[in-house]
Write a structure and sequence with these properties.
The chain has helices at about 25-40, 125-140, and strands spanning about 45, 55-60, 70-80, 85-95, 95-105, 110-115, 120-125. By secondary structure, the protein is α+β, with helices and mostly antiparallel strands. The radius of gyration is 14 Å and the shape is globular. Bound molecules: nickel (II) ion (NI).
């Protein structure tokens, strides 16, 4: 599956995505295509609307630039807990080329999601991973990092 990266002001980046309710080979192909597009663009996260697919799925590999790849796929993600402590940090977005912005976000979150088999997973994220999962989850509701003012 070859996917084209969408950039602002493409309206697909502003739509609210629909839950994924079908788990199978097509979803796996979408996730693989999204990961390939993310690595090709030298990114560490990519959400489905960024390739014009209006489904609640994003991919992330927070550490591949430092070593081996560790691709992760998050389907129907929900933030179940956010640290009351927030901090400002710089974020880049593959859909907003060459325009990093400062965003204040909780420093840690817990996330619940489904995997490619439809099984529910939950995990805790801090550091860069916490920032990344919040940024990518925002994309599923049409929210861009440039919407935050700090
Ligand atoms: Ni982004």
């Amino acid at each position: 599956m070859s996917l084209t990266l969408r950039t602002v002001p493409d309206p697909v980046l502003r739509a609210v995505c629909k839950p994924v309710d079908s788990f199978g080979p097509a979803l796996r192909a979408l996730a693989d295509g999204m990961l390939a597009a993310m690595y090709d663009a030298y990114g560490r996260g990519l959400a489905a609307p960024q390739v014009g697919v209006m489904k609640r799925i994003f991919v992330m590999d927070a550490t591949w630039k430092d070593g081996a790849r560790s691709p992760q796929v998050f389907i129907n993600p929900v933030v179940t807990w956010a640290d009351p402590v927030s901090e400002a940090g710089e974020e880049g977005c593959l859909s907003i080329p060459d325009a990093p912005c400062m965003v204040t976000r909780p420093v840690a979150v817990r996330l619940a999601w489904q995997d490619l088999d439809g099984d529910t997973q939950e995990g805790a994220f801090d550091g860069f991973s916490a920032r990344c999962v919040q940024h990518e989850r925002d994309h599923l509701d049409g929210i861009l990092c440039t919407d935050y003012t700090t």
